[in-house]
Amino acid sequence: MNSALKYLSSVIFHLRQKRVLQLEKEFSSRQWWSTEDLYRFGNERTRSLAIHAAKNVPYYRELFNSINIDPNSMSFSDDWNRLPILEKDTLRAKYNDLVSQTDHSRKARPNHSGGSTGKPVSFLSDLRLYEIMAANMRLIFSWAGWKPGEMVLHLWGGGDKKLPLPFWEHIKALLNGYLVLPVYSYDENVFIRWWEVLKKYQPTIIYAYPSVAADFSRWLEGRGYRPKSVKGVFCSAEVLFQDHRRIIEKVFNCKVYNQYGSRETPCVACECPEGNMHLFTDLNRVEFLDQPENPSGPKRIIITPHENYAQPFLRYDLGDFGAPKEGMCPCGRGYPLMEMNLGRQNDHINTQDGRIIYPSFFIHLLDGKKWIRRFQFRQLKPDNLDLTLETDSPLDIQEHVGHLSSEILPKLQSMMGSGIRLSVRVVPLIERTISGKHRFVINELEKK
Ligand SMILES: [Zn+2]
User: Fold this and answer.
1) Distance, CA 270 to ligand 1 centroid (Å)?
2) Which pLDDT does position 116 carry in this prediction?
3) Residue 7: exposed, middle, or buried by beta-carbon count in 10 A (0-12, 13-18, 19+)?
4) What is d(CA 170, CA 164) in angstroms, rounded to the nearest whole number?
5) Rounded to an integer, what distance in angstroms lies between the CA atom of residue 300 and that of residue 83?
6) Contact 349, 445 (CB under 8 A)
7) Cα(303) to centroid of ligand 1, in Å?
8) How many Å apart are CA 45 and CA 53, to the nearest integer?
9) Residues whose CB is under 5 A from ligand 1 (ion)?
């Protein structure tokens, strides 16, 4: 890079950093607003986005005309429910019509979500979203006691990273205050290097997939290593199970914070120090809708990210399930609350009589089986479940597997119907998704 370019990129970096700090200041004060004021603020952001979409986005221009909705009108909040849900299939099919005809899209970044096991989609992310994400992270990290200048370690995503870091990368990590280590694959040697990183950089925050943080914690515990610097471990992108939370909190001696969002809809919710999931209703409008086929079950989470002007999504169906939670949190933050322990896209299993079973049922079937290192249930056919196991290879492995089958099959049959068949296999490695996530339960019938 020549010196003029270097100068330009450092000016851009500082301008962006300045905007992130300004946003963080706004978020920090907004978190103490009343729930009513936060909803009012969020509703205005929804309306502004809809006005922009009606004017500048062909898909919405046509839609609003055809169903006679005017985002400027007084009746807009009632009309909102008449807007169709934006499904991933529609986003794929109408990609171009959903792009804004303004500068927002020309400056936006192409983005993708969904790995080998989900339904991949491509979309545009407004540049402002990156500043909002950075500021929101600073806010939630502060909930754990993080202070500006303290190191954040991300165990996240794919790619490759040379360790120990080359000199300039080391300096960059110190200046930026964060370091990202890829988790696509890991083993004993990788854990040793991560432990070296923990000791050297003394991060106060770890941001990780829960399965990865839990595996690393188990390894640290086995070695008798006790990290000392960490104030909070933030888990996202996978369902956070109690077993994971327990081992991570024990080994890192700090609280685990569940965070919820997606690439299309970042910064949806985060757990506070009191253990409640707060919804950032200023950044996203979140709706919980009944499932027509299962009205008494968990609700579909429908999200409208307020700040993606490049490619607005109004009422986007992420494919996740949750529920609103009543009441105020003792922490005093006004953000409303939600329950988020029910499931994610295609990780629930269908029964032949039309019921849905959520992943925690399957997870608990293997409670206490210490010889199983990692597992994955896959529904291949309506009456066929495949369970693969990574194990610590005890000598009598086939006997263990036989016992396991005869122990859990009756439980599966009583839950799913007597026709269900189960096959159990031990494999050397259960493959992760492209971005390094582990899936415990996969519904292959729902993959498209
Ligand atoms: Zn709270």
Assistant:
1) 9
2) 37
3) exposed
4) 8
5) 16
6) no
7) 21
8) 12
9) 272, 274, 276, 329, 331, 333
Contact 203, 230 (CB under 8 A): yes
**What pLDDT does 354 receive?**
73
Given a cut of 60, is residue 162 above it in pLDDT? yes
* CA of residue 255 to ligand 1 center, whole Å: 14
The pLDDT of residue 189 is 87
Is pLDDT above 60 for 337? yes
Residue-wise pLDDT tens digits, 117-140: 345 688 999 999 999 999 999 999
Q: How far is the CA of 260 from the centre of ligand 1 (A)?
A: 15
* 235's tokens: 């888990």
- Which tokens belong to 414? 């009583």
**Residue 302 Cα to ligand 1 middle (Å):** 22
Tokens of 213: 């943080």
Q: Quick one: pLDDT at residue 448?
A: 43
Q: Please name the residue ranges forming H helices in 275-396.
A: 359-365
CA of 332 to the centre of ligand 1 (A): 6
Would the pLDDT of 320 be above 70?
yes
The DSSP secondary-structure symbol of 81 reads: G
DSSP secondary structure letters along 210-249: HHHHHHHHHHHHHHT----S-SEEEE-SS---HHHHHHHH
Answer yes or no: are the C-beta atoms of 446 and 346 closer than 8 Å. Answer: yes
